[in-house]
Amino acid sequence: MTAEKKGFDRRTFLSALGAAGLLGTMKSVGGAVRADEPAAGNPSAEAAAANPFGGAAASYPVLQNPGLRGMSVVWAVRPEPGKLATGWVEWGRDEKLGQTSRRAEFGLNQLSETFLSARIDGLEPGTAYCYRTATCQVLFENAYNITTEEPVYSPIYRFRTPSRRAATEKFAVINDTHEVQDTLKALMERIEEVDPQQVIWNGDLLNSFVEPKQAVDSIFCPQYGPFAAGRPLLFNNGNHDHRGIWARGKSDALLPWRHKGIFGDLGRNFVLRNGPVAIIGMDTGEDKPDANPVFSGLAAFEPYRQRQAAWLSQVLKTKLVRSAPYIIVVCHIPLFDDRPGANPGDIMENFASWQRPSARMWGPFMEDAGVQLVIAAHEHAFRFDPATESRCWAQVVGGGPELEQNTTIMIGEADRRSLRLTVEKMSDHSVLGQWEFAPRRV
Fold this sequence. Notes:
single chain, alpha+beta, six-stranded antiparallel sheet
């Protein structure tokens, strides 16, 4: 949804959003490096306060794209002026680590001034691993004069890979944060209390992607602790996440998923199976038709949705998904809205309340598979649409960015007997709704 339509000020930031201001007062959180207030006149202490992560690192690591046998790690960097950064991940079954993964393309190791990443493959399902990041500053004067400094290491963090055999699944869903810092802080604190196995960020993380610093401040959130260093973040595009000059470059921070075969171009769709739950991420795209003049001919969401329909039809038939007692589809723009006058997204006026083209293309496959739940966002207002005789899935829509008015967090917990979904209002932690879903016949 367009944030301004809800009275939201997209310029809402903390006055001290700069790293030196926000990070200078951080304490030890989740085993991360401590950064107390700098001692007056102590240059080394002041430098540590400006960047408590050390060297060129600028955030805690963020786990992404979890699989039964793999996990990606991404972290922000802020090298000194005139320098770049490279790095890697050291990992293993215990704190001895012993193995290394780093990102290389066409024979070149990664070199960046914004984000570094690495993919850890060859893991075992349902298994705990330890890891840390290593970050080096690089002075690249010319092809034969390159100086790489000593690495700076993060603390050791732990994660567990998903597993089909897990007895339970617990996830949290947030959405439509739109860079509002008090909302982000409250959500990060609640995530730590809930302690889910995954966090799903269901779109409109930012107002528009203009520069990498936005992703650091409002997605990686180094000022609020390592919320995704031990549990993966599942990012799902919202319409605002497609906007801005840097929208095409955000994949350095929010890694695309890797699909085999003909669907290698659908890096924002995902399927995650953990225990009894299969979670499928779909990208509803923008909230206006491609021909709308506001896009100046740069939008191609209609064929993109069609490609996703073909992908979805195949994914729902895989054993990984077919054997799941619960199937959840996550998308930003709702797939159903029977309120009078609700804009279906395929007319030129205004912006979509729901995505009729996606519902028409994806809905039949969801019906055939027996999807029980769609989790959506976009409207900045919580609501629940129960399943009907003609639609097998219920739909729950999350709230918006105004902490005292409409911010929500969804908490899902499942075992073989039931899937329970609770929606909390963040301002007072009251329960807006709670539902229980029976397992599918598999």
